[in-house]
TrEMBL record:
TM region positions: 45-62, 69-91, 111-136
Classification of source organism: Bacteria, Pseudomonadati, Bacteroidota, Sphingobacteriia, Sphingobacteriales
Pfam families (UniProt xref): His_kinase
Domain of life of the source: Bacteria
Keyword Transmembrane found: yes
Species: Mucilaginibacter lappiensis
Protein name per Swiss-Prot or TrEMBL: Sensor histidine kinase YesM
GO MF entries: kinase activity
Residues annotated as domain Signal transduction histidine kinase internal region: 150-225
Keywords: Kinase, Membrane, Transferase, Transmembrane, Transmembrane helix
Amino acid sequence: MKIRRPSTTLLQLLIWVAVLLLIFFSALPMDGAKKSVVSTLISTFSYAIIIYGNILILYPVFYQKKKFVWYGILVILLLVVVGMSRGYTSIMLYQYFSIIKPVHIKFLNLLYYVPSGILIYILSLIFRISIAYFTLKQQTEEIMLQKSQAELNLLKSQVQPHFLFNTLNNIYYKVYKVDPPSANLIERLSDIMRYFVDESPKDVVPLTTEVAFIENYMALERIRIRYGVTINFEKVYQTELRVPPMLLMTFVENIFKHGINKSSKQNQIDISLIQKEGYLLFSTSNHRFNTTVPTNSNGFGIANLTKRLSMLYGSNFELTTKKEGELYLAFLKIPLV
């Protein structure tokens, strides 16, 4: 039986609508409606040229065929041409609609529009990976439904597209403003995407890789918390340990969904990951800001985690969650292989 899933075309359309609205409302307070409309349309169109020019033409035609020199040259040419065209078009339309006074356009001034395209190019690589991953996930899940391990692999992969696109929405504003911290955030997101593509399909991954994934996730989540968050992460284990991928993620994701008050200055998360007597002990502690914490939100959560743990370890594991005063505590104990 063929399973219907949202198409990548619809998904891309929704993302571009969100990008267009985000750029417009970000510029509106400073630039006014007329200038914001013009700059939004030009910016969005130029970003689309860079992203799709890379993922549909340059990347498959040159990079995937190992023509790295030509790929590098053409990427630079694309960024320069699109950036300068964006600057020239913006100035001309601003003058046409009497937004600015007529000015003499200098070649060097147009070059200032080029650097903003660099981060968009980086984003296009992430976009390319995400589309490939989303398409591959659809194909592999239909095949894996016929195998005995289908349910387990489905549970492992559910969180991936959900997390990716929510995170891209969170960091897009910083990318648009073009600053070094934004570039660092995109680099972390790239690491997460590589984890999704390279590591999550495996039965087990190095514990250090899993921890790096969690730390990258927490770093990205910090950007939507106004006053920041204090995270205490205790780690005591041997570096050669291996665990099933995405096993610890549910706890951390629930903390940022239900245990953070964006307007509070006293957000604190305590996490402990300890190896002890042949077992791995993972515990989290955070304040409760929501009166109820769903155990199965949008198909994810503790319920699915419990089911997956049963498939992996039978009854040889411990999983508890409880409320203790103003705190929400979670504990997981699994045997080490």
